[in-house]
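User: Can you fold this complex?
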Amino acid sequence: MNDVIKIAQMAKDSAIKAQGLLTEIKNFALNKIAVALEESKNDIFNANNSDLETAQNDLNNGKITLSAFNRLRLDENKFRDMVQGVRDVAALNDPVDSVVWSKNIAEGITLKKVTCPIGVIGVIFESRPDVISQIVSLCIKSSNALILKGASEAVNTNKAIFNTILNVLNSIEEFPQNMINMLYSRDDVKLMLEADSYIDLIIPRGSNSLVKFIKANTKIPVLAHADGICHIYIDEFADIKKTIDIVIDSKCQYPAACNSVETLLIHKSRLCDILPKLVDKLVENGVKLLADSSIVSICNKVSLACEDDWNREYGDKILSIKTVNSLDEAINHINKYGSKHTDCIISENDENAEKFMSLVDSSGVYKNISTRFADGFRYGFGAEVGISTSKTHARGPVGLDGLTIYKYKLYGNGDIVSDFVSGKRKFLKD
Amino acid sequence: MNDVIKIAQMAKDSAIKAQGLLTEIKNFALNKIAVALEESKNDIFNANNSDLETAQNDLNNGKITLSAFNRLRLDENKFRDMVQGVRDVAALNDPVDSVVWSKNIAEGITLKKVTCPIGVIGVIFESRPDVISQIVSLCIKSSNALILKGASEAVNTNKAIFNTILNVLNSIEEFPQNMINMLYSRDDVKLMLEADSYIDLIIPRGSNSLVKFIKANTKIPVLAHADGICHIYIDEFADIKKTIDIVIDSKCQYPAACNSVETLLIHKSRLCDILPKLVDKLVENGVKLLADSSIVSICNKVSLACEDDWNREYGDKILSIKTVNSLDEAINHINKYGSKHTDCIISENDENAEKFMSLVDSSGVYKNISTRFADGFRYGFGAEVGISTSKTHARGPVGLDGLTIYKYKLYGNGDIVSDFVSGKRKFLKD
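Assistant: Here's the predicted assembly.
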């Protein structure tokens, strides 16, 4: 048996005990972790400097990108947010042991649907060491055991943060041993993905290619999104001002985000009024435009798009534009090329908007509002586990409740099925 | 591209359109299917007789078991239940397009969490042809596309039932083409399990080995339970009469059911009072008993159990009995050997019961009530998609809502994220 399986087994044992953790104990631990992180700040920054030194060489040699280097670097702001994030999770409602509903199925027999933790969560993340305290906090609050695997270039920072947290948990006797665990070797990822007898849910935090690799290589349910190919459809009945405001915000406010728009679909009837104004504004904002031939033929500020452009997440100030003949064509295009993330219709026609929102098969369907709102914090969840484009378990921005499932508690008083089969007793109707 | 992938692709296209099906149309179709099945009764029974003739040879040659032969046979009762089942699904509430919650995240911005179909459901079932109409009804009602694969020994019956249903759907123009599909070849199962780009959820209906095979061979989420190793723990504070009633019902009322009890755990303090009476009653009911050495040494009506007995689903009038020294030992035993299906504590001590129900990691945790209650109909769901022992999506008896997920609908009026980042506007607090 390899070490990863041993750790996963111990995490599973620990998960059973963690189910009984009281809210007060969990919040006490979280607040103590926040203090401990503050107290270990120097050690954590020293460890980060050591990682940055190695990374600087890799950067100079072209082995890593500047953005990867920047993600690795802790600074005062990131550290403050990291610590505040732990306190914020402490302030959230406990997602566990909450009665979803309760009813009497027969006289004297009460059925309760009650939330409970999932069990063992596996999180595989790249570079950003500030993710650790966030993930650990969410798992503590939801009473799940955790196996973390961070990037090797952040190994010293990860160790410093993780050990600070582990020391706190080890000092609180109510916390089961091995509830949180950290793996450091790249080879461990493969072993984690095979540990489907022990790990109940995998959450990758990182690039599209990381997410795709993980989805392709495990039978464990994965909570994530790979691509974020978001669309805005400018309907026949779109308002010009709203269109310009929303498109500029969706593309330019933070182009690297997964909820930024990548493709505009425009109803053919709006090529003459909305399109020229919108193109001017986009170009003014430094956006490079690629469009179909009918748009290229009437507008000299755009280049010709190829088929591949409808499939691309630019993550940059680039936008593809396509003419559609109808609402149906827009819906079909999005369902074919989209990534089930977030798609918006701009329209003053409620019927068109409702049709779009019903038939576009995405986790977020928007009407007259920027795609950049797709975010757990903006939705008011108080925390974001990730954004999921799966079709089961959890979808869209996932809050703390995405780390829970439910069990049925049935309370009787010596009741037997025979009495119901014989007709002596009857189940209650709703 | 093979035929199964083509069918799966077409089902996926159809699933998009099925999202827009109105409740009235779905119910109209279901009631029309019920009538059509009644009208095709002779054809269906003729087809079944033809399957039974072949199966009779297989039975004589020992190729199939008597119970498989009986599952294949339609009779008046099964047929009536089958038709009534379709009408019952028509009478259920529509699980789609129901607003889970709705809130204003900022002034003028409304977020709605709305239920929607999952997409394409794959169902692989053994022998029982009466399953078809049930599964099709549930998928129609939840607006999901469906790919069915039945057992080859029921091919004629399956075709007769399926074609009757298909004719009805084809006669209603609102129903998208290829919403329900049927595969007949054994080789198609493997291809279905690989179609993870098209099929969103697999539901196996059949033996433990079928479920295990499917779980081991697909990346598609599986809604099912493999084993049903249910426990009853007789606590230090158990009531004798309740214990005897519940244990007899849980073991004898229908021993082949997955929610029948397979292992009793008894607190050491109750070996002298409860055990002898319980053993007498079980033996009287024809139950064969296997127990640990401490029980064998004081009771001559039981045989010695081996380690393997704690892992076995007998599905028959056989019961294993183990002494435990404490509630904790009972909890640990169940979490180690159980199947996360349904486990019960018999106790008059509320604290012990709550601890058991909190720490036993099963989809159903019961207090003083027969394990045989674990059933979607008994829970009042009006339908049962299956019983799930997974840790994500759906758990325990799963009703129609297990075939749904949700999307977020966000309604704005030209709102942009920049205004919130700049501080010009603020999100509302809960």
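The two ends of chain B are 51 Å apart (CA to CA). The first helix of chain B runs from residue 3 to 18.
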